[in-house]
Amino acid sequence: MRADRLLSLLWMLRARGSLTAPAVARELGVSVRTVYRDVESLSTAGVPVYCVPGRGGGIRLDPGFRTDVTGLTPQESQALLAAAAVSGAQDLGLLEALTSARLKLTAALPASTRDAVDMVTGRVVVDAGGWLPHRTPVHLDALQHAVMGDRRVRIGYRSRGTAHTRDRHLDAFGLVCSAGTWYLAGAQEGRVRFFHLARISSVEVLDEPTDRPPDLDLRGLWEESRARFRARFTPEPVEALVRPDRIAELLTLAQALEPPGPGTSPGYSRVLLRFSDRSHAVEVLRRFGPDALVLEPADLRETLLVEARSTCLAYEQVSGSAGPRRGGRPIPPGTRAAPSR
């Protein structure tokens, strides 16, 4: 609806101060001409919004203008508060500020909307931390200061799959928290890349300003990078025999290509799965042990078999393995007999 679009434009200007018409058009999914018509409508309604022509110009809102949050629908209010609950505020040292902001936002809502929000927050808890203790990345504080202060950094970084650490001089443009994992958005020679904080061994904040483009779209760059990463995968179809009581858990980690059917061995069901790639299949099926046995492809089955034998041999060499044996090999305690195909 047009009223919703006008409110969205107003909130965007309140949050960012100045925006170009093409940037607004992209975010709202409308034409540039429509954006200018909306600006005119807001101005006619008494909102102090105006356009500044030329380089560095854009659509601006008088900084003294204030509104309340009565334009938020109950659903928008609930979504905003839920999103705030799963942010990386604790890692950034902003948990107390976030809690205060949520209380102020809730108090500013109309009574009917506030009641709906209270009902949801009293019934739904979103915990992004999980059961295991959470550790804030070692260098996050220093990188946060560099990003907020528009400073360049020198980091020691270990690329994936290597043990060698290299120094890199970067423009620190931003931080991304994805599923609890932090990344630094850094530019080297104009190219923005994302660096996993867990692989950063050292950080030095330099007394050099970053060369930050005025139209940098951090979220857009992150989504493009993630799409390129996912495009590198070659999907891996797998036919397996799975214990019925583990199927539901397995299907949270892989896609089922067809409903589970009867297996060729007692106590197992046949499942046709698709993993994102071979390494993903190995990682997941390894943890299921004898509860998920690969039928096809044969080379994947052989990979897991060799890995299992190597593990048994390592246990035997370390402990002397005096327990029961089968075929000259130790039988790990609690191991179920493998079915015949």
TrEMBL record:
Keyword Transcription regulation attached: yes
Q: A Gene Ontology molecular-function term?
A: DNA-binding transcription factor activity
State a single Pfam family of this protein. WCX
The answer to keyword Secreted applying to this record is no
Q: Which UniProt keywords apply?
A: Transcription, Transcription regulation
Q: What is this protein called?
A: DeoR faimly transcriptional regulator
Q: What residue spans carry the region label Disordered? A: 317-341
Limits of the HTH deoR-type domain: 2-60
Q: Which organism is it from?
A: Cellulomonas bogoriensis 69B4 = DSM 16987
Matching InterPro entries, A to Z? CBASS_pafABC_assoc_protein, DeoR_HTH, HTH_11, PafC-like, WCX_dom, WH-like_DNA-bd_sf, WH_DNA-bd_sf, WYL_dom
